[in-house]
Amino acid sequence: MSQLDEKTQQKEMQTFLEGLRASSQLQQNIQDYTNRCWDKCMTGTPGSSLSSSEQRCIGSCVERFIDSSVFLVKKLEQDRLSLQGLSQ
């Protein structure tokens, strides 16, 4: 196997592993949001279905966490690009 093929395979493996890490992080975030929002919005013992206020609370709670996460990711990316521009 040539060195170029080996480097290509290493790059593909690295990309694959980064994708797995991102997927794992997303699953962890979803679990975290679910737990936090459940604790915040569920005021008593749940019945056979969620009340409309519980549904709204959980929906709003998750949206706030997602909006915050998106904001932070964009901010960190801007900071990274800014620092990268300064170092060149």
TrEMBL record:
Annotated ranges, domain Tim10-like: 17-78
GO cellular component entries: mitochondrial inner membrane
Chief subcellular location: mitochondrion
InterPro entries: Tim10-like (IPR004217), Tim10-like_dom_sf (IPR035427)
Subcellular location: Mitochondrion inner membrane
Top-level taxonomic group: Eukaryota
Disulfide bond as UniProt keyword: yes
Pfam families: zf-Tim10_DDP
Topology class, membrane: Peripheral membrane protein
Keywords: Chaperone, Disulfide bond, Membrane, Mitochondrion, Mitochondrion inner membrane, Protein transport, Translocation, Transport
GO biological process: protein transport
Function: Mitochondrial intermembrane chaperone that participates in the import and insertion of some multi-pass transmembrane proteins into the mitochondrial inner membrane. Also required for the transfer of beta-barrel precursors from the TOM complex to the sorting and assembly machinery (SAM complex) of the outer membrane. Acts as a chaperone-like protein that protects the hydrophobic precursors from aggregation and guide them through the mitochondrial intermembrane space.
Complex formation: Heterohexamer.
Similarity remark: Belongs to the small Tim family.
Record remark on domains: The twin CX3C motif contains 4 conserved Cys residues that form 2 disulfide bonds in the mitochondrial intermembrane space.
Record protein name field: Mitochondrial import inner membrane translocase subunit
Organism: Heliocybe sulcata
